[in-house]
Structures are given as C-alpha cells and as structure tokens.
Design a protein that fits this description.
Number of helices: 5
Low-confidence stretches: 1-10
Mean pLDDT: 82
Order of helices and strands: HHEEHHHEE
Distance between the termini: 46 Å
Length: about 140
Amino acid sequence: MRRAASDERLSLDAVSVEDLNGALRVVRRLPLELLGFLILLPIVGIGLSWLSTALAPPYGLSIFGQGLVTWGLLLMLALLFGLFWWRGRQVGLLLHDPAILASPVMSLMSVPGVLAARAQALGLEWSGFYGPLRPRRK
C-alpha cells in the first residue's frame, strides 16, 4: 500500500494563524447573520401574506394546497440551513478539519472548542468573542 502524504502534512494542528483568524471571523459573523434572518422572517411573512391576498382575494393564493406564506417560510428555512452549511463548510476548510467538513451544520457547535485547541497549539489565546487571537500570557 502506498502512502499518499507524509504525517506532517496530515497533521490536524498544521493551521496557520491567518486561517485561524479567518475561521474566527466566520464564527463571529454568524450571530449577526442569524439576527438578520430573525428580522427578515416576519417581514417576509407579512409581505407574502399581503401579496397572496392581493393576487387572489379574499382568501389568498394557494399552491398545492398551501398558502404563499407557508412556501415563503419553507424557503427561508432552506436558506437558513444553507447558511449554516456554507459557514460550517468554510470553517472546516479553513481549519482542515475532516469532522467539520463531514457534517458542517452539526459541527458548528464545536467550532469554538476546535478554534481554542488549535490556537493553544500555536501558543495563542482567544481574547474574547469579538477580539483577535493574541500570544498567550505566561
């Protein structure tokens, strides 16, 4: 059996500081994007309700037995899942972590722990949620 790469290249801790900071930026941006979805959700619901009633008064437009609001909210749920998948995939690629790449949505909860472990391996510490990585104090 032929070995594909040396053990140094396969090491999970071989992540640069720039990649760690990039993953940290993605993690810090995620709550703001979730807040945007939280604000957009009622706006989409009210807008689609108004549009549905305007297109087919008095009961609204129905597609396959469901109202336009239901389809819009299902689309928003699919977009939210896509956001979680995309951000998890970005973090997994930046950290070279096969566990995060295998299940990007479910692994988003473990990303802060993985970031802390990788930063500690490089002699860095996390200076808080919105702070950058800095050298560890002795």
